[in-house]
Amino acid sequence: MQHPLNIANFDSWLQVGHPPLVISGPCSAESEKQLLQTASALSRIRQVKVFRAGIWKPRTRPDLFEGVGNKGLEWLNTVREETGLLTAVEVATGEHIERSLKAGIDILWIGARTVMNPFSVQEISGALQGCDIPVMIKNPVSPDINTWIGSIERINLAGITKLAAIHRGFYCYNKSIFRNTPMWDIPIELKRLFPVLPVICDPSHISGRRDLIPEIAQKALDLEMNGLMIESHIDPDNALTDAAQQLSPKDLRSLLNHLEIRKKSGDETFKDTIQQLRGEIDMLDSELLNILARRIEVVKKIGENKKLHQVTILQLKRWQEIIQDRLEKGARMGLREEFLVRILNLIHQEMIDLQNQVMNNEKNSNDQVEPD
Ligand code: PEP
Ligand code: MN
After folding, report:
1. Which of 60, 168, 202 to mutate for ligand 1's pocket (most ligand atoms within 8 Å of CB)?
2. 161: Cα within 13 Å, side-chain hemisphere
3. From CA 204, how far away is CA 25, in angstroms rounded?
4. Closest residue (by CA) to atom 5 of ligand 1?
5. Looking at the predicted structure, is the pLDDT value of residue 13 above 90?
6. Is the pTM of this model over 0.85?
7. pLDDT at res. 24
8. Which among 18, 95, 96, 139 is least surrounded, fewest beta carbons within 10 Å?
9. Which atom in ligand 1 lies closest to the alpha carbon of residue 205?
C-alpha cells in the first residue's frame, strides 16, 4: 500500500527563491583547488544556489577513482564559507551520513546504485532518524518506479520531510543516444502519485555527453520539473570522472541563460482556447475508446472461429501484413513510425491475450463438464 508522504514545502526548505532550483558542481571532488575554482565561478552564476560534489564515488570497476573521501568534507565547508553556496554530497552508508552531518553539509543525496538496495536505504534511513537535513533521492538504475517510491518512503519514515526526487534516467539494455534513457513517463507518474514531492532532473547523467544536456534540461522544465542538477568542472576534459558530460562554468551560464522558463498557465484567451481544444480531445478520445471496444468484439469473434477450427492464435503472415499496411497508411497521415509500431504492438498483444482467454478459459470449463 502506498504511504502518503509527509513533505515540507519545497520553496520553504531551500529558501532560494523561485524554481527551478539549480544545483551544480563537479561529478567528483578531486582537489581543494579544483573545488574552490569551480565553486567560485559557479557562485557568479545567478541561478546556481547549491554546489554538488561526490566525495565517495560508487564506481563500476575497482581500479577507478573512488573519490577523495572525508577530506572533501572540509573542502566543501570552505566552499560554503567562501562562496555562500549551499553544499550537497552523495551518501551511501550510515557512516557517510554521520560524517556529513558532523561536517555541516547542507543537503544529502542518495545515488542511483544505492537506491536499488533496500538494505542500504534502510541503513541510511536509520542514520537519518531525528535529523532535519534535506535529502534528495535519485531514481534507481533500472526503470522500477516502486523501488524509487519505496526508497523515498523509507527516508520519509525516518522523519525527513525536506525531500526531493532526482530523475537521472534509467539504464536500458537497448542502447540509445543517451547514457541513461530518460523514460519521462516514470518521473511524470511519480509526480502524479505524489504531487507535493519536488522532482529535480539530472540532465548530465541522462545525456552522458555535454551536447545533449540543453535539450534534456529544457524538456525537464517543460515537464514542470522543479530543478536541475548539472555537473560542472573548471576543466571538464580533464575531470577524473564523467569528463564527457561535465560543463565548464561558462557553458553552464550560457545554457541556463538560454533556457525558456515557461509559466504553468496563461491568460484568459489562452485558457479559453485550451478549454475548447481539450473539448475536442475529449471527443476524440471517446471515439478512440469506442473504436477499440468495437475492435475487441471483432477480435473475440475471430478467436471463437479459430477455436472452432483449431487454428493457432498468432498468424504471423497476417500480422506482418497489418504492420506494413498500417505503417504505410500512418506515414501518409503524418504519424511517426516509432509511435505507430509501439501502439500496434500494444494492441496486438492485448488482442492475443483476449483470444487466449476465448480459447483456453472455455476449454478449461468444458473440461469440467465433459470429464474423460
Ligand atoms: C553522480 O551524481 O555523480 C552519480 C554518481 O550519479 P548517479 O547516482 O545518478 O549515477
Ligand atoms: Mn557523475
Report:
1. 168
2. 10
3. 11
4. 111
5. no
6. yes
7. 98
8. 18
9. 9
